[in-house]
Structures are given as C-alpha cells and as structure tokens.
Design a protein that fits this description.
The structure holds 2 protein chains of 2 kinds. By secondary structure, chain A is α+β, with helices and mostly antiparallel strands. Chain A is globular and about 45 Å long. Chain B has 6 helices and 4 strands; from the N terminus they run ααααβααβββ. By secondary structure, chain B is α+β, with helices and mostly antiparallel strands. The longest helix of chain B has 10 residues. Classes of the chains: A alpha+beta, B alpha+beta.
C-alpha cells in the first residue's frame, strides 16, 4: 500500500499529507499489535494451555509426559514448572538436565509442523512474563491440574 | 542518569517511525544494530550516539553489540544492575508509552533468537555500526 501511494507521481494529494496519513495508519496498526501482545490467554503458563480438553488427547503435562515414557515422579510436582526443578535444576547440577532447552526444543523444533508454532503463534510470552518496571523476565507458573496417583491411591498433598 | 535514559527526543521518535516496515521475516537478524542505526539524512540512532547523549562513557573497545557491552556490564545472578534487566526495562517499561512496544510490537525475537534444534535461547549480535 505504501508503495502504491508513493509511486503514483500524478497523484493530486500532496506528499506531506500522504506521509501523515501513513504515519497515522502505522500508529493505528502498531496500537493493535501492542494490544494483542499484552492480553494474556495463559496467565499460569504451562497449565493454562496444557489442559484435559474435550478432544481425544489429554494434553495435561502429566499425560504428555507419560506418553513420552517419563517417570511418574514428575506427577508429584505441585507448582509447574517450578517444582520440576527438583530433578531438572536450572544450574544443570540436578539428576536430569535443565528444563529450558528440553522445553524450548519441544515447542520450537520443526517449526513448520510444530503445533506450538503453527497453532499458538510460538509466542515466548505464553510461558514467560516480562516485568517492564524491573526489567526481569520470569517463567509463569501455576498449580498442577491433575491428581497424582501413588500406589493406586490418589494423593492430595 | 536513569531519568535521562527515559527521555527520548521527538526527532528520534520520528526517525524511528520512518525507518520501520511491517513485521514479517526477521528484520533485525543482528539485533540491536539492525534497529539502532544511522541512515543517510536521518537522525543518528546508533547506540554510540544515543548513549553519548545521556553522558555514557565512551565505547572504544566495543566491537560486537551487545556482546562487548559485557566488558563493563554483567548479567550475573544477584547482580544489582544486571545488563539484561536494564535493557529489558528500557524497552518494556510503561508499555502503553514505550515505542518499542507500541511501535515495534515488543517482540522478544527482535533481540533474541531461538535455536530450534538445541533449544538454546540466544541474544542476537552484530559488529558495531559506528
């Protein structure tokens, strides 16, 4: 659109006006983009998106991990993903590797086919939050949305 | 100094507006220096020039941006004035008024890159452009 306007030399509208209109348009577009970026559909990160759902596939983290063959111990993590640190320490010193690369990879490899990218726009802010006042980036978290079963008994703690 | 960082002149704002195009592919493959640059006949937006305006020490040893900023600024855990927090704050504080969010969409990927194979989140960088 910009090119069309600027290229038509015979246009009776003067250039400063076109420029003003373009700036107004870009500002309006910018405001829309800004608004979209700041509404948060997933305030609790992982568990806001990984829900049981109505489809055939249970997408809760415990179910997803179980399908990956992950140990059941993960089910007892209470606050997700913070409590996963018990094994996946971010220092890399835990019994399992740090979570960041595992989780980034799960959501970004093969971008043409990865549902997180194709269906959820791949936004960093689905998992991260940015506190503009302090400049601190954090990982959103929330309570697990499942009841762990240990020895056939559901546990509530 | 903090207050002066927040003051962003009208000339700079206009110039930034004039230099942007709609966001699609990665328009800033080298991060900072692909957005903070000088174009002929426009306001000089290089970091060298912007930082000079706020009385920042000269930057003779900076070769790669922002990598070499780390020569004096650190992002170590527990550090009082972490570089990451400072740069995030400049670009995300008061989102309704901050040009980086209102005008540039506030995209993390303007500065960061995601290596999809390793899962490593990186900070893009490029040679200084001053």
């Amino acid at each position: 659109m910009k090119n069309v306007l600027v290229k038509s030399k015979e246009s009776s509208i003067n250039r400063p006006m076109i420029l003003l209109a373009l700036i107004a348009l870009t500002l309006a577009a910018g405001a829309l983009v800004g608004k979209k970026a700041f509404a948060d559909d997933y305030p609790n990160g992982c568990v806001s998106c990984h829900v049981e759902g109505t489809g055939a596939l249970d997408m809760r983290i415990n179910a997803v991990l179980s399908r990956l063959g992950h140990g059941k111990a993960a089910d007892r993590s209470k606050v997700i993903p913070a409590a996963c640190d018990r094994c996946h320490a971010s220092s890399g010193d835990g019994p399992a590797s740090a979570l960041r690369n595992l989780i980034h990879r799960a959501h970004y490899t093969d971008p043409d086919a990865n549902l997180f990218v194709t269906q959820y726009a791949g936004s960093c802010l689905h998992c991260h939050a940015m506190d503009g006042a302090s400049g601190k980036a954090s990982v959103k978290s929330g309570e697990r949305n499942w009841t762990p079963i240990v020895g056939g008994e559901p546990i509530t703690e | 100094m903090k207050d002066r960082v927040r003051v962003f002149s009208l000339a700079v704002i206009t110039a930034l507006l004039a230099t942007t195009a709609p966001v699609q592919a990665d328009e800033y493959p080298q991060g900072c220096v692909d957005c903070h640059k000088q174009e002929p006949g426009k306001t000089n937006l290089t970091l060298n020039a912007l930082l000079a305006q706020i009385g920042h020490p000269k930057l003779p040893k900076v070769k790669k941006v922002p990598t070499s900023c780390g020569g004096c600024h650190a992002s170590d855990e527990g550090e009082e004035n972490q570089f990451a927090h400072m740069i995030h704050q400049i670009h995300f504080d008061v989102p309704k008024a901050n040009l980086f969010t209102t005008r540039f969409g506030g995209d993390c990927l303007h500065c960061h890159a995601m290596d999809a194979d390793s899962g490593e989140a990186l900070v893009k960088s490029g040679p200084r452009n001053w």
